[in-house]
Structures are given as structure tokens and as C-alpha cells.
DNA sequence: GGTGAAAAATTGACACC
DNA sequence: GGTGTCAATTTTTCACC
């Protein structure tokens, strides 16, 4: 899809604050509120903006434990299989196929270590998983929303 | 902070759609719009809701390459040092200290492989980094916003 | 792309429990 | 502490140019 510098700035402003009003955004990009809305509607319908979400402090909702788990899979495992399998587990908040020794990297979030262990066991029970390697998150140092290159 | 089931449901609804109106949310949790707003204001001021953001398709804004990099650091490296160092690099969209062989895991997003390589070189140049192990993301299978346990 | 008007949402004041 | 109702203001969302 075609996007100009104004679209990029609107996106950056919405990433910074998804509840900013169109008038507020318009003031910063020198556009009227309706013009901003039309652009945002277009960005949404073309899939550039996938949605709007609240950023939550995980510990506040009872998720205190995170881990990254490398999956080593059997030879014939497809990304689709991994997708289906990982989506089944509510603890999975991210999953990626990767280059390197592992086949996939899975990001888990659980209530506590016990819950994490349980989720990990379930994941390891998937038929295509041959082995795993876990990294439990000790502290989140950086966690930024999708950064947008600012075209100044 | 103290949170009841209604707060949890409001949070879940805002994670699903940060631009939902208070009246719309109120209809789903059986509360008036002002009551919802008061709760949201409280959740924001207490840091449970850290903010609202737009979810962007990374490829649409020119970020086509992602990687996870394990950092192996010198013995006396502190999390604070890693935080400061990783925040300097705009390509870092996540950083965590982890248990296991590596000391930290860094999530990078770059325009292309060349850009990623460049960012990786800069990261490896940090004085406390002894070695790295990279996993380039081949495909994003799952990428969910902070999942909230639904108290049904 | 802007303007203007109607509809809807936000926000604060107030009473109530 | 919490809620709902009401009114003023602001925002959204249409027309139409």
C-alpha cells in the first residue's frame, strides 16, 4: 500500500497514544480532523493499522513469569503445524520460526513458575517437538510498542 | 492495587479494542459510561493500564526483518548496564535478562538483513558483550497483545 | 483536501447508597 | 468506598463543496 510521510506521522502518534483525538492528531500534522479520520480509516482497512490495544502491566493482572522457549522439531514439521499447536496454549504470547539451531522460538507468559512449568510440559507434549531449551525471563528491561521510523 | 472482576473484564475489552467507547464497554460489564471511565482513570493512574497504542503491521512501515539475539556478558555486567546499552539502539524492541546459558535476550527489528547486521555489530561492540547467538525470525506465527485471563 | 451540522462520546457536578 | 443521572463540552462522523 502507498503511504506518505503524513501517514507515517499519524501512525507514530497513534502508537504513542491510541486514544488521541483526530483533532489533536490533525493539529500536529496540519490536517483537519475529518482528513485524519479518513487516513486512519484507510490505514485500518488496508491492514497497516491492525487495531488498537491497551498496554497492560502484566504483573498487575497476575502474570508474573515469562519465558522464551526454543523448539527443536522433527524434520517434517511445517510452520502451520507450529502455529496451530502454539495457538492452542493461552500462555503463548508470541511464536516465530527462526534460523539457527532451533526451529521456533515461543514466548510464554504464565501466572507463576508452576504455571509456566505446566505450560511448558504441554508444549513439549506436542508430537512434533523433539526437545526444548528454555530461558526464563528474570526482568523485562525494554519492551517497546512497534517503533516507527520518524521521517523528520 | 486492588482489582475486581469487573476491572479485569474492562481491561480485557480495552486490550481487544482500545478505542471502544465507555458506553460500549459499560454495556458489556453492566455499568454506566461514567462508572467505566472512573475505573479506567483509576487503572491508568495506578499503572495497571500503561497506555493505549496502535498495533501496526511492521512490514507496512518498512521493518521486514526481526531477530532474537542472546547476549553473553562479562561477569560483572548488571541489568542496568544492559538496559542503558540496549535502549541506545532504536532497533531494540525488547530486552530481557534470562536464566540459562545466556545473560540476556534482545529482540531486534530492522529494515532489512543489512540493517539487522549493522545493528547486531553495534550491539556486539558494547564493552560488556563477550559473544552473541542470533536467531533471525523467518515468520511471525503468533503475536498477541498482553493476554488477559478472562474471568467468565 | 476542507466546512459545517447532526449524532455520539467524554467529562464533571451532583445526589444517592 | 462505590454507583447512576444529567448537562455541558468535545469528538466523531456524516453530509456536501
Walk me through what this model shows.
The structure is a homodimer. Chain A has about 150 residues and is of the alpha+beta class. Chain A folds into 2 domains: about 5-45, Winged helix-like DNA-binding domain superfamily/Winged helix DNA-binding domain (Arc Repressor Mutant, subunit A); about 60-135, Lrp/AsnC effector binding domain/regulation of amino acid metabolism (RAM) domain (Alpha-Beta Plaits, 2-Layer Sandwich). Helices cover about 35% and strands about 30% of the residues of chain A. Chain A is built from 5 helices and 5 strands; from the N terminus they run H-H-H-E-E-H-E-E-H-E. In chain A, strand 3 and strand 4 form a beta hairpin. At the A-B interface, helix 1, strand 1, strand 2, helix 4 and strand 3 of A face helix 1, strand 1, strand 2, helix 4 and strand 3 of B. The structure holds a DNA duplex (17 and 17 nucleotides). Chains A, B: It holds the Pfam family AsnC_trans_reg. Chains A, B: Keywords: DNA-binding, Transcription, Transcription regulation.
Secondary structure elements and pairings:
Two copies of one chain form a homodimer.
Chain A: H1 5-16, H2 22-29, H3 33-45, E1 49-56, E2 65-73, H4 79-87, E3 92-98, E4 104-110, H5 113-124, E5 129-143
Antiparallel strand pairs in A: 2-4, 2-5, 3-4
Helix pairs in contact in A: 2-3
The structure holds a DNA duplex (17 and 17 nucleotides).
Task: Quickly describe the structure.
The first copy, chain A, is 36% helix and 30% strand. The first copy, chain A, has helices at residues 5-16, 22-29, 33-45, 79-87, 113-124, and strands at residues 49-56, 65-73, 92-98, 104-110, 129-143.
Amino acid at each position: 500500500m502507498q503511504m506518505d510521510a503524513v501517514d507515517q506521522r499519524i501512525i507514530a502518534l497513534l502508537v504513542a497514544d491510541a486514544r488521541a483525538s483526530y483533532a489533536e492528531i490533525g493539529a500536529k500534522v496540519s490536517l483537519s480532523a475529518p482528513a485524519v479520520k479518513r487516513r486512519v480509516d484507510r490505514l485500518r482497512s488496508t491492514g497497516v493499522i491492525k487495531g488498537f490495544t491497551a498496554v497492560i502491566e502484566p504483573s498487575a493482572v497476575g502474570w508474573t513469569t515469562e519465558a522464551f522457549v526454543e523448539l527443536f522439531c522433527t524434520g517434517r514439521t511445517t510452520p502451520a503445524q507450529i502455529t496451530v499447536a502454539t495457538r492452542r496454549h493461552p500462555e503463548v504470547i508470541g511464536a516465530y520460526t527462526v534460523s539457527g539451531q532451533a526451529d521456533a522460538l515461543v514466548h510464554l507468559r504464565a501466572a507463576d513458575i508452576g504455571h509456566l512449568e505446566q505450560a511448558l510440559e504441554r508444549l513439549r507434549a506436542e508430537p512434533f517437538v523433539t526437545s526444548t531449551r528454555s530461558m526464563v525471563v528474570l526482568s523485562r528491561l525494554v519492551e517497546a510498542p512497534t517503533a516507527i521510523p520518524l521521517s523528520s
